Amino acid sequence: MKIDKTTIVLHIVAWFFAVVWILPFLGVFMAAIRPFSEILRGWWIVDPFDLRATFNPSINSFIEAWTDPVYPLSRGLLNSFIVTIPSTIIPLFVAALAGYGFARFSFRIKTYLFTTIVLMMALPQQSVVVPLFQIMVRFRLVDNYLSLVLVHSAWGLPWIILFMRNFFSTLPIEVEEAAKVDGASDFKIFYKIVLPMSLPALASVVVLQFMWVWNDFFLAKVFIYEESMLLATQRVEFVGRELFRVNWGVLSAASIIVMIVPIVIFVLLQKYYVRGMIGWTIKG
Amino acid sequence: MRKNVPLFFSPAIILVLLFVVYPILQTLYLSFLSSSGQFVGLNNYSEILSRKAILDLEGFPKGPPLGALIHNAIWILIHLPLSMFSGLALAIVLRDVKGSSIIKSIVFLGMVTPLIVGGIILQYTFTERFGIITAFFDILGVEELSTTWTARANTALFALIFGSVWLWTGFSMIIYSAGLATIPKEYYEAAKIDGTGPLKMFRRITFPLLRPLHIVVITMTILYDLKIFDIVFVATFGGPGNASKVLAFEMWLQAFRFLNFNGAAVIATLLTLLTLVVTIPMIKYTVSR
After folding, report:
1. Which of B26, B166, B289 sits opposite A24 (nearest CB)?
2. What DSSP letter does each residue of A31-74 carry, written as one string?
3. Burial of residue B66, with CB atoms counted within 10 A of its CB: 0-12 exposed, 13-18 middle, 19 or more buried
């Protein structure tokens, strides 16, 4: 490659962005692995000759956050998995059915129905929580994960329906028509032929929906109050908060524990994540 | 109608009716009732809109607090151009940079981080002595910006807004990267033969051809700004005073702190209307293809 001035400038600009963007993450990471006394003047200061700024990394803060006496993160992660897994699988199948219907069937109100569904993607969850809270109180579902799973499932539907409908529309219809000639029902065609062909799209849905439910804080805050039931995202509100100061070490460790799950998924399944993000927003 | 149509649609329709459509209509209904259940017309609306936490025009020459409604507007005015153009700039620059996939992953990290954690990280970054931004301004000698941003009325909102740029830029970067890949190279080659400079190429080719993506990025970013909640909750709790309150946060506060369900319903309804207005251009585009 011929190195010219533009190339150098582009590289400097790009890596400058990268450094600026990673610094806050590096900050919490350093705060989490260094003793609190070392980060009092800034996590970036490392001076082997100054007792207040030597570099003694440890995992003590992680252990403290993981085993917090009131809000252990260990329990938070478990709770989050218990909520997130069904909240990912239920809308996946429900929305795949409907998405297939939109892609392949034609009926009178289809366009209206579809427009309504797409419009729902825009809605803020604030628009439903008061009545939903009142319903959940009436049915004794506050402090019960069923409330969260149901609401997350319903709110995942619009984008998954849109995404799956776009994907199904790209599948060759000939296979399905051949199966129909052989006498297979619509439903059988759907789960015997169409779903197996759709595994990459389903993987994208799983990755995105899992992350959104895992990262959710608002709905959990509305429906879950019992200390032992709080989800991972709810616990960072409490861990490391001492009476007169914030213990940034423990709070940072807790933050890292909560974000490590979506980050690992992103790193491992980046292809599906990006495809989902793009397929849902821009491409057919 | 084919007999199987209901089978494919009913589970989705039931869930959506129960947990989306019904509660939205109920919220609208609640917004017209008094706390004792009587119909009071638009009274709740005028009551909520006259609150300082929602609209505080006296603050105007000085800066925040200006009320949640104005804060959301300021959020959009700052966050939208910053994240949109840095995302676009990154997408363009990264086409010709070595290690671009690493840089993309770094910038995108903010998108996969739970917002509640993002809020904690930004609070840390803007905290006096602990954070790198306050330390940076300390070195520059700007005393006002070297103290904890989230604890001061005239900086809290801006700490949150800049934090949200950091968290959200990955979105526009990914969308624009995908869009740039679809522009045929021949366009640029032809332009080059005609002697077109890079800036003109951007204005005449790149920017206009990305038009559908601008719609997506603008819409999604405004929606994100209208719904912003987690980072406000954890980094400032709307404070100090009302200085960093936003609509979604004030709605939660009214409903679940003060148990003022009717007032909360008013804010929720306003928020819903705003999001619907913003979404119309994108709907036209999504449904029409």
Report:
1. B166
2. HHHS-GGGSTT-TT---TT-TTS-----SHHHHHHHT-SSS-HH
3. buried
Residue A84's nearest CA partner among A244, A208, A221, A226 is A208
In order along chain A (284 residues), what is the average pLDDT of each group of 10 residues? Answer: 77 91 94 86 82 82 91 95 97 94 86 86 93 95 96 95 90 86 86 90 94 96 95 92 84 95 92 83 54
The pTM (predicted TM-score) of the whole model is 0.92
Q: Which residues pair with A241 in a beta bridge?
A: A246
- The reply to whether A253 falls in a domain is no
Distance CA A176, CA B134 (A): 62
| Chain A nearest C-alpha distance from B11 (Å) | 6
Compare all CA atoms of chain A with the CA of B129 and give the residue at the minimum distance.
A41
Question: A247 lies in a domain?
Answer: no
- Give domain status of residue B195, yes or no: yes
The structural domain count of chain B equals 1
Q: Quick check: is B14 in a domain?
A: no
pLDDT by residue for chain B (289 residues), tens digit each?
Answer: 456 778 889 999 999 999 999 999 999 999 999 988 889 989 999 999 998 888 888 877 778 888 999 999 999 999 999 999 999 999 999 988 888 889 999 999 999 999 999 999 999 999 988 888 988 998 888 888 888 898 888 899 999 999 999 999 999 999 999 889 888 888 888 888 888 888 888 888 889 988 888 988 999 999 999 999 999 999 999 888 899 999 999 999 999 999 999 999 999 999 999 999 998 877 777 666 5
Q: Does residue B277 belong to any structural domain of this protein?
A: yes
| β-bridge partners, A246 | A241
Distance CA A274, CA B104 (A): 11
ipTM, 2 decimals?
0.92
State whether A45 and A161 are in the same domain: no
CATH number assigned to the domain comprising residue A225: 1.10.3720.10
Is A270 part of a structural domain of the chain? yes
Q: Does a structural domain hold residue B25?
A: no
From the list A10, A119, A248, the residue facing B97 with the nearest CB is A10
Domain, as residue range, for A11: 1-58
| Count of structural domains, chain A | 2
Structure token pair of residue A104:
């392949």
| Alpha carbons B206 and B88: distance in angstroms, whole number | 10
Q: Provide the strand spans (E) within A95-167.
A: none
Q: CATH number for the domain including B247? A: 1.10.3720.10
> Inter-chain contact B121–A10, Cβ cutoff 8 Å?
no
Residue of A nearest to B212 (CA): A282
User: A73-79 long-range CB contacts below 8 Å, 24 or more apart?
Assistant: A73/A232, A73/A235, A73/A239, A73/A254, A73/A257, A73/A258, A75/A228, A76/A230, A76/A231, A76/A232, A76/A234, A76/A235, A76/A258, A77/A232, A77/A257, A77/A258, A77/A261, A79/A145, A79/A229, A79/A230, A79/A231, A79/A232
